[in-house]
Amino acid sequence: MRTGRVHNRIKEFRTAAGLTQQELADRVDATRQTIIAIEAGKYAPSLELAFRIVLEFEAAFGDVFQFRR
Amino acid sequence: MTQAEKYSWLSLITTGAIFLYFKMKMLDGWSVVDQSAERLIGVYVVVVILAIIAETALALFVAGARGAVTKDERDHSIEAKANGNAYLFICAAVNVIVLQLLADEAFAGHILPRIDLTSPPTIFFALFAILFAAQFVKLLSTLIYYRV
Q: How far apart are the first and last CA of chain A?
Protein backbone atom coordinates (compact mmCIF):
# COMPACT_ATOMS: atom_id res chain seq x y z
CA MET A 1 0.00 0.00 0.00
CA ARG A 2 2.97 2.37 0.43
CA THR A 3 3.21 4.63 -2.59
CA GLY A 4 6.42 6.57 -1.95
CA ARG A 5 6.41 8.69 -5.09
CA VAL A 6 2.96 10.27 -5.08
CA HIS A 7 2.85 13.04 -2.51
CA ASN A 8 -0.09 15.21 -1.62
CA ARG A 9 -1.09 18.26 0.36
CA ILE A 10 -4.62 17.11 1.11
CA LYS A 11 -4.32 17.66 4.86
CA GLU A 12 -3.18 21.23 4.27
CA PHE A 13 -6.04 21.99 1.87
CA ARG A 14 -8.57 20.17 4.05
CA THR A 15 -7.72 22.04 7.23
CA ALA A 16 -7.67 25.32 5.31
CA ALA A 17 -11.18 24.50 4.08
CA GLY A 18 -12.23 23.69 7.65
CA LEU A 19 -13.20 20.12 6.78
CA THR A 20 -12.81 17.03 8.92
CA GLN A 21 -11.56 13.79 7.35
CA GLN A 22 -15.09 12.38 7.57
CA GLU A 23 -16.61 15.42 5.86
CA LEU A 24 -14.10 15.24 3.02
CA ALA A 25 -14.67 11.49 2.73
CA ASP A 26 -18.43 11.99 2.46
CA ARG A 27 -18.01 14.67 -0.19
CA VAL A 28 -15.72 12.59 -2.41
CA ASP A 29 -17.59 9.30 -1.86
CA ALA A 30 -14.81 7.52 0.05
CA THR A 31 -14.37 6.21 3.58
CA ARG A 32 -12.61 8.18 6.32
CA GLN A 33 -9.98 5.42 6.49
CA THR A 34 -9.16 5.97 2.82
CA ILE A 35 -8.67 9.70 3.39
CA ILE A 36 -6.43 8.89 6.37
CA ALA A 37 -4.38 6.45 4.24
CA ILE A 38 -4.04 8.97 1.39
CA GLU A 39 -2.97 11.77 3.72
CA ALA A 40 -0.41 9.46 5.33
CA GLY A 41 0.96 8.52 1.90
CA LYS A 42 0.03 4.87 2.40
CA TYR A 43 -2.42 4.74 -0.47
CA ALA A 44 -2.35 6.38 -3.90
CA PRO A 45 -5.90 7.20 -4.96
CA SER A 46 -7.26 6.42 -8.40
CA LEU A 47 -7.23 9.26 -10.91
CA GLU A 48 -10.99 9.62 -10.49
CA LEU A 49 -10.84 9.97 -6.70
CA ALA A 50 -7.85 12.31 -6.98
CA PHE A 51 -9.85 14.55 -9.34
CA ARG A 52 -12.85 14.50 -7.02
CA ILE A 53 -10.62 15.62 -4.13
CA VAL A 54 -8.99 18.34 -6.19
CA LEU A 55 -12.37 19.61 -7.43
CA GLU A 56 -13.60 19.70 -3.83
CA PHE A 57 -10.78 22.11 -2.99
CA GLU A 58 -11.19 24.07 -6.26
CA ALA A 59 -7.43 23.85 -6.70
CA ALA A 60 -5.07 22.93 -9.52
CA PHE A 61 -4.26 19.23 -9.69
CA GLY A 62 -0.53 19.86 -9.38
CA ASP A 63 -1.04 21.94 -6.26
CA VAL A 64 -2.67 19.03 -4.41
CA PHE A 65 -0.82 16.04 -5.87
CA GLN A 66 2.83 15.85 -6.83
CA PHE A 67 4.83 13.06 -8.37
CA ARG A 68 8.48 13.07 -7.34
CA ARG A 69 11.05 11.00 -9.20
CA MET B 1 -12.24 0.73 11.19
CA THR B 2 -14.28 0.60 7.97
CA GLN B 3 -17.43 -1.46 7.59
CA ALA B 4 -15.51 -3.74 5.23
CA GLU B 5 -12.77 -4.28 7.81
CA LYS B 6 -15.31 -5.08 10.53
CA TYR B 7 -16.94 -7.51 8.12
CA SER B 8 -13.58 -9.23 7.55
CA TRP B 9 -12.94 -9.64 11.29
CA LEU B 10 -16.38 -11.09 11.94
CA SER B 11 -16.14 -13.30 8.87
CA LEU B 12 -12.79 -14.63 10.11
CA ILE B 13 -14.36 -15.55 13.45
CA THR B 14 -17.42 -17.24 11.91
CA THR B 15 -15.29 -19.09 9.35
CA GLY B 16 -13.12 -20.35 12.19
CA ALA B 17 -16.19 -21.54 14.09
CA ILE B 18 -17.57 -23.36 11.03
CA PHE B 19 -14.17 -24.94 10.40
CA LEU B 20 -14.09 -26.17 14.00
CA TYR B 21 -17.49 -27.82 13.46
CA PHE B 22 -16.20 -29.38 10.21
CA LYS B 23 -13.02 -30.58 11.92
CA MET B 24 -15.04 -32.03 14.81
CA LYS B 25 -17.19 -34.03 12.38
CA MET B 26 -14.30 -35.23 10.21
CA LEU B 27 -11.29 -35.77 12.43
CA ASP B 28 -10.40 -37.94 15.37
CA GLY B 29 -7.16 -36.42 16.57
CA TRP B 30 -5.11 -36.08 13.38
CA SER B 31 -6.76 -38.87 11.40
CA VAL B 32 -9.86 -38.63 9.22
CA VAL B 33 -12.79 -40.67 10.54
CA ASP B 34 -14.10 -43.25 8.08
CA GLN B 35 -17.74 -42.38 7.37
CA SER B 36 -20.45 -43.38 4.93
CA ALA B 37 -21.19 -41.21 1.91
CA GLU B 38 -24.61 -40.36 3.40
CA ARG B 39 -22.99 -38.94 6.53
CA LEU B 40 -20.48 -37.00 4.44
CA ILE B 41 -23.32 -35.47 2.43
CA GLY B 42 -24.93 -34.50 5.73
CA VAL B 43 -21.73 -32.77 6.89
CA TYR B 44 -21.39 -31.06 3.50
CA VAL B 45 -24.96 -29.72 3.56
CA VAL B 46 -24.67 -28.48 7.16
CA VAL B 47 -21.35 -26.72 6.47
CA VAL B 48 -22.70 -25.02 3.34
CA ILE B 49 -25.90 -23.93 5.11
CA LEU B 50 -23.91 -22.63 8.11
CA ALA B 51 -21.65 -20.64 5.78
CA ILE B 52 -24.64 -19.11 3.96
CA ILE B 53 -26.41 -18.23 7.22
CA ALA B 54 -23.23 -16.78 8.74
CA GLU B 55 -22.41 -14.60 5.73
CA THR B 56 -26.01 -13.37 5.42
CA ALA B 57 -26.25 -12.59 9.14
CA LEU B 58 -22.89 -10.79 9.04
CA ALA B 59 -23.86 -8.69 6.06
CA LEU B 60 -27.09 -7.63 7.79
CA PHE B 61 -25.37 -7.02 11.14
CA VAL B 62 -22.46 -4.99 9.77
CA ALA B 63 -24.64 -3.03 7.37
CA GLY B 64 -26.83 -1.98 10.31
CA ALA B 65 -28.86 1.13 9.68
CA ARG B 66 -26.75 2.21 6.73
CA GLY B 67 -28.36 -0.33 4.45
CA ALA B 68 -25.22 -1.78 2.88
CA VAL B 69 -21.56 -2.44 3.61
CA THR B 70 -19.88 0.77 2.51
CA LYS B 71 -16.92 0.03 0.27
CA ASP B 72 -14.80 2.46 -1.65
CA GLU B 73 -11.96 1.98 -4.15
CA ARG B 74 -9.38 1.18 -1.45
CA ASP B 75 -11.62 -1.56 -0.04
CA HIS B 76 -12.06 -3.03 -3.54
CA SER B 77 -8.31 -2.82 -4.18
CA ILE B 78 -7.56 -4.64 -0.91
CA GLU B 79 -10.23 -7.25 -1.66
CA ALA B 80 -8.72 -7.87 -5.10
CA LYS B 81 -5.22 -8.38 -3.64
CA ALA B 82 -6.57 -10.72 -0.96
CA ASN B 83 -8.47 -12.74 -3.59
CA GLY B 84 -5.22 -12.99 -5.54
CA ASN B 85 -3.44 -14.40 -2.50
CA ALA B 86 -6.22 -16.95 -1.94
CA TYR B 87 -5.99 -17.99 -5.61
CA LEU B 88 -2.22 -18.48 -5.32
CA PHE B 89 -2.77 -20.54 -2.18
CA ILE B 90 -5.29 -22.81 -3.94
CA CYS B 91 -2.88 -23.24 -6.88
CA ALA B 92 -0.09 -24.22 -4.50
CA ALA B 93 -2.31 -26.63 -2.55
CA VAL B 94 -3.59 -28.36 -5.71
CA ASN B 95 0.00 -28.70 -6.93
CA VAL B 96 1.02 -30.30 -3.64
CA ILE B 97 -1.82 -32.84 -3.97
CA VAL B 98 -0.97 -33.61 -7.60
CA LEU B 99 2.73 -34.04 -6.81
CA GLN B 100 1.85 -36.19 -3.82
CA LEU B 101 -0.31 -38.48 -5.97
CA LEU B 102 2.35 -38.75 -8.65
CA ALA B 103 5.14 -39.32 -6.12
CA ASP B 104 3.12 -42.09 -4.49
CA GLU B 105 2.83 -43.87 -7.83
CA ALA B 106 6.36 -43.21 -9.02
CA PHE B 107 8.28 -43.77 -5.79
CA ALA B 108 6.31 -46.35 -3.83
CA GLY B 109 7.64 -46.70 -0.31
CA HIS B 110 9.11 -43.21 -0.07
CA ILE B 111 9.37 -41.63 3.37
CA LEU B 112 7.89 -38.24 2.50
CA PRO B 113 4.80 -37.12 4.44
CA ARG B 114 1.63 -38.49 2.87
CA ILE B 115 -1.86 -37.09 2.40
CA ASP B 116 -4.11 -40.12 2.17
CA LEU B 117 -6.39 -39.53 -0.81
CA THR B 118 -7.69 -43.03 -1.29
CA SER B 119 -11.16 -42.79 0.23
CA PRO B 120 -14.12 -40.37 -0.03
CA PRO B 121 -13.76 -39.05 3.57
CA THR B 122 -10.08 -38.16 3.12
CA ILE B 123 -10.62 -36.60 -0.30
CA PHE B 124 -13.61 -34.64 1.03
CA PHE B 125 -11.65 -33.46 4.04
CA ALA B 126 -8.56 -32.49 2.02
CA LEU B 127 -10.52 -30.50 -0.58
CA PHE B 128 -12.76 -28.75 1.93
CA ALA B 129 -9.81 -28.00 4.21
CA ILE B 130 -8.11 -26.32 1.22
CA LEU B 131 -11.22 -24.18 0.64
CA PHE B 132 -11.32 -23.20 4.31
CA ALA B 133 -7.61 -22.44 4.31
CA ALA B 134 -7.98 -20.31 1.17
CA GLN B 135 -10.74 -18.36 2.90
CA PHE B 136 -8.46 -17.84 5.92
CA VAL B 137 -5.69 -16.63 3.61
CA LYS B 138 -8.09 -14.18 1.99
CA LEU B 139 -9.43 -12.80 5.27
CA LEU B 140 -6.02 -12.56 6.95
CA SER B 141 -4.56 -10.87 3.85
CA THR B 142 -7.43 -8.39 3.88
CA LEU B 143 -6.86 -7.52 7.53
CA ILE B 144 -3.10 -7.19 7.04
CA TYR B 145 -3.50 -4.92 3.97
CA TYR B 146 -5.78 -2.64 6.00
CA ARG B 147 -3.03 -2.19 8.56
CA VAL B 148 0.04 -1.64 6.34
A: 18
